[in-house]
Amino acid sequence: MNRDSWNRIRKCFKTLLDDDTFIGKAFDIFIQVLIFLSMVSFSIETLPHLPGWANTALHYFEWFVVTVFTIEYMMRIAVGGLSYIFSWWGMIDLLAILPTLIGAEVDLRSVRILRVLRFIRALKLTRYIKAMHRLNVAFGLIRDELVMYLLITILVLYLSSVGIYYFEHDAQPQHFASVLHAFWWSVVTLTTVGYGDVYPVTPGGKFFTFIVLMLGLGIISVPTGLITSALQEAKKLIEQEQESQQEK
Amino acid sequence: MNRDSWNRIRKCFKTLLDDDTFIGKAFDIFIQVLIFLSMVSFSIETLPHLPGWANTALHYFEWFVVTVFTIEYMMRIAVGGLSYIFSWWGMIDLLAILPTLIGAEVDLRSVRILRVLRFIRALKLTRYIKAMHRLNVAFGLIRDELVMYLLITILVLYLSSVGIYYFEHDAQPQHFASVLHAFWWSVVTLTTVGYGDVYPVTPGGKFFTFIVLMLGLGIISVPTGLITSALQEAKKLIEQEQESQQEK
Amino acid sequence: MNRDSWNRIRKCFKTLLDDDTFIGKAFDIFIQVLIFLSMVSFSIETLPHLPGWANTALHYFEWFVVTVFTIEYMMRIAVGGLSYIFSWWGMIDLLAILPTLIGAEVDLRSVRILRVLRFIRALKLTRYIKAMHRLNVAFGLIRDELVMYLLITILVLYLSSVGIYYFEHDAQPQHFASVLHAFWWSVVTLTTVGYGDVYPVTPGGKFFTFIVLMLGLGIISVPTGLITSALQEAKKLIEQEQESQQEK
Amino acid sequence: MNRDSWNRIRKCFKTLLDDDTFIGKAFDIFIQVLIFLSMVSFSIETLPHLPGWANTALHYFEWFVVTVFTIEYMMRIAVGGLSYIFSWWGMIDLLAILPTLIGAEVDLRSVRILRVLRFIRALKLTRYIKAMHRLNVAFGLIRDELVMYLLITILVLYLSSVGIYYFEHDAQPQHFASVLHAFWWSVVTLTTVGYGDVYPVTPGGKFFTFIVLMLGLGIISVPTGLITSALQEAKKLIEQEQESQQEK
After folding, report:
1. Prediction pTM value
2. One domain for residues A27 and A117
3. For chain C, which terminus, N or C, has the lower number of CB atoms within 10 Å?
């Protein structure tokens, strides 16, 4: 293969991977559908009592998907050069095919963990998520505040755990065995999930829960407020940016 | 019937269906009450162990409603012409009477599905929902972002499912039988519904739930923020529109 | 009693009921504490297995409260004239004392409903809730939208009920016996309360719940957005009002 | 020790406690990690069936932590003078070491409550929570409204309790034994936690819950709106402040 035909092939790959051309868009949608079907197929594979023919079909489909993804990966390296291998998307692309490729060689025992790792494939989808510019700008504006807020949330969860442990440990030693067990209750309660596997039964514990929840509503409100405020600001920033670009 | 009397009848229908006149408004309210009563009557009909006289009464009421709706449908065709049949509201109006009309002719077995389809009648109500201009403008502003956000949510739900499946499958093979079963857990948990039919029991699964929920609160906050921001923008756009109309 | 001394008494009452003077403020706090204690006392009264002395104490306290409230009511009539009786606050004041006054005369059977009606007393507290000007302005701005939104919510709840009834009726005839029973499930699920008394068990029902909840999160977001937007607007309106008053 | 060497030591302490220098920042992180590890260690300590060596290790670690905190406390007094003892942070610092110090002297029975009090140590972390300026400004703007809103919430919870008590007391006397028991239901329901330990079973009670929840969604929305609105205003105020400082 001489350099000239190689260049022609690279150009052909570029057209396929470029999402501005018609054929590029079609290829994008093909890959997206494949990722989605692969996610569904992986979910079905875990179903118990699958008939033999279904397992065979899923097996063949898996290899079809991995073959396509491997070809796509190689095409992207051909276009982007070796530096693509060490880029973010290069890593994701590699990790999307590796579990199945390795799984074919190794013994059956460690296959399950490799199977689970195939979920990484779903992250390939994020490449196609657009319209997120505003979300990124917004999160950039409040990153520090959100991290700080996460710390406050964990602090509140910890203090709630200690409190409920104190109130409920004697009444329900199996559910509130330790502060760590009580932490699970705090998470489930303050996020208002409330499975019902653990809940206070003593009057003191119930009153404490009431107090914690009155604060909890406030806690849940703050990140919502931060994000809403940041999204509006991001909107303004993006509009100013666009205006200044148009003026040029 | 000559053309003149036909025109007079059409004019009469127009007055009845026009919601600006007094008689038109009264007719609107009559239809709305009928839709509402029909929804209630359909709900009551499904109650088990209904006495015979109640069934008879509901049956007669159903036919009364369908008769009125059929007359309304024909009046609207008379006013709007044949093109009304293929319009959005024409379809809804037809589907609102069809299940009962067909149900009278066919055998009993397939009647149940037809009965359920009568719920379409409730959509007739949306014709009367006004003051939604702002909501429509707001949703129009963020349609792309909401769709993209729905995809992100489904991605998060999928990754949560794979994670919890990995942690809980061995401990609770009946509840976390597959990734699809685990997806149900993800939906119930990340929306903070938390029925309590499935929940993690292993320390690893509980810690994973904690991580997932910390992100989940953030996820729930973003669409709220988008909608709030869009509602304020929609307000401004509508006010600007009204001002520019007044200036003319 | 001549007119002069009557006027002096009225003036004295006015001072007591006026919340700008020191003695008026003290009287306000006294009434507020009494309302709160009366709420607590009513709650305690419903506790089963109360010892005799506690019942006696609560009985005497109840009559003390009613006596004070009756005197307050008469003072307010003396100051505000007969028109006070037919005002909003006059009604509340009367209803706060009536159940106990009537309960003393009638036989024991109907006493329970009268006892429950004593909760109306809690509404007396709303007289003292200030700083609500902004909330009132905000709700005034979006009253129509909120009402319209309530209708949409009920429509969504109804359609969810019909859907889940269709999917789950055969599998769980005891929980989803009718559309009315299914409506309870819709309410508990779409508000994300999720008691866990009813939940779907069929794959179809679970998938339907997933769809309903994706929309449900959006539904919960809209009134939050409307209220946030209205509160900011109310803030602006109030500031403009204050500025225009200062300019005068 | 003469005054000169004392001053040199104080200066050295100042450098260590100052969070602008490199060594001060390192010391800060060291203390933060210690607080975090101490919180984890306290949680582990409450686990049942801990092996003997783990208890011994935790015991030694506890004394290491308390020693470091005591030295830090004394350094802060040396730098800040005796007035530090009566400052907010001085109190927290003292309460963080006191339980363990006293626990070493007293008999075993009262040790448990002292152990629980060690959670106060977590509050030492709040010293390091920065980026909260905006949150503080925002909460300062709506403090009155939030307090008033808390009162409204409690009023709504009380009225819900009385209502559900009336509807459910006869059907479930064990769960809705009194208005106080019903209050627990109100808290769990209106915060949308919904453990599932108590829920209405009568048609009347379920309908009442529906009404209460329709209002409940509104109630949950208002503080979110207040906080969002306040956060945006706080942003503006802080920016104005910074601009006026730059102009000087």
Report:
1. 0.88
2. yes
3. C
